[in-house]
Specification:
With about 240 residues, the protein is of the alpha+beta class. The protein has six helices and 17 strands.
C-alpha cells in the first residue's frame, strides 16, 4: 500500500509525524538505499526498504497505548542531552518502542500518554484537534474575578491570545489555593505562564485528565495499559 514516508515512520513508532518530517528533512531517512528529503514522498510499505540512521524500520509492531503517572524531575523525551532522567526510564518493562504524546514540564507531574501509534499521536498533538487537558494546581493566593475572566475570555501570551480556559477554586488553603484548570492548547509551560500573568504563580502542578481519560489513583512513577474503551475513545476524538 502506498503511504507517505512520514506516516510510515510514525506508525513504526520512530517519532510523531511532525518529528518524522524533521528527520526526513535532516537527511536521516533512506528508501531503498537513497536518502530522501522530500516530505511528499510515498513508499510501498510491502516492498520498499526504509532505513532510519542506518537501521531498518519495521512496521509490524503491536500497537500499544500507555498511561504513565509522570513524577516531577523527569523530562518528556526519549533521550536528554543533559543526562537527566526521562520518562522512558519509567517504562522499561515495555518492549515496544513508544514515544510520549505531547509533553509535561520537568517540574510538572501527572497523566502522560505514550504509544507507538503515530496516527493517534498526530491527532492528539496537532493544534487543529481540540482535546481538553485538566490540571490540579496549587497557586499562591486566591484568584479573583479578574483572573477568572482572563482564563475564560483568553489573555495575551507571548504575542498570541490564549483559547478560552476554565479556572475553578477547589479548596482555599490560606496562603495557597487548590484550583482545577482546564485548557485546550498545548503551548510550552502554558498553565504556569497564564497563572503568572494573573499574579497567582504555581506552587505545584499535576495533570489529572486528558479528554475523558483520568489519572485516577495510578501511583506516581507507575504506568498501565489503556483499556479498549479508552483506546476507542481516543481514536474517535
Amino acid at each position: 500500500m502506498q503511504v507517505r514516508l512520514q506516516k510510515y515512520l510514525a506508525d513504526a513508532g520512530i517519532a510523531s509525524r511532525r518529528k518524522a518530517e524533521e528527520l526526513i528533512l535532516n537527511g536521516q531517512v533512506k528508501v531503498n538505499g537513497v536518502t530522501v528529503t522530500e516530505l511528499g514522498t510515498k513508499i510501498d510499505d510491502r516492498k520498499d526498504e526504509v532505513l532510519f540512521n542506518g537501521k531498518r524500520v519495521e512496521n509490524s509492531e503491536k500497537l500499544v497505548y500507555i498511561m504513565l503517572h509522570k513524577p516531577e524531575g523527569y523530562v518528556t523525551t526519549v533521550k536528554d542531552q543533559f543526562d537527566r532522567p526521562t520518562v522512558m526510564d519509567l517504562i522499561k518493562g515495555v518492549k515496544e518502542r513508544v514515544v510520549p504524546v505531547g509533553r509535561l514540564d520537568y517540574d510538572t507531574s501527572g497523566l502522560l500518554l505514550l504509544t507507538n501509534d503515530g496516527e493517534l499521536t498526530y491527532k492528539l498533538t496537532h493544534p487543529k484537534h481540540v482535546v481538553e487537558k485538566t490540571y490540579m494546581a496549587k497557586l499562591f493566593g486566591r484568584p479573583d474575578t479578574n483572573a477568572f475572566n482572563k482564563f475564560k475570555w483568553g489573555m495575551e501570551l507571548e504575542g498570541r491570545r490564549t483559547a478560552p480556559a476554565k479556572l475553578e477554586i477547589v479548596e482555599d488553603l490560606g496562603k495557597y489555593c487548590m484550583c482545577k484548570i482546564t485548557i485546550t492548547e498545548g503551548r510550552n509551560r502554558q498553565v504556569r505562564k497564564m497563572c503568572d500573568l494573573v499574579k497567582h504563580p504555581v506552587a505545584t502542578l499535576k495533570r489529572v485528565g486528558t479528554g475523558e481519560l483520568e489519572l485516577g489513583n495510578l501511583p506516581k512513577g507507575k504506568y498501565r495499559y489503556l483499556t479498549e474503551k479508552e483506546i476507542r475513545y481516543l481514536k474517535n476524538l
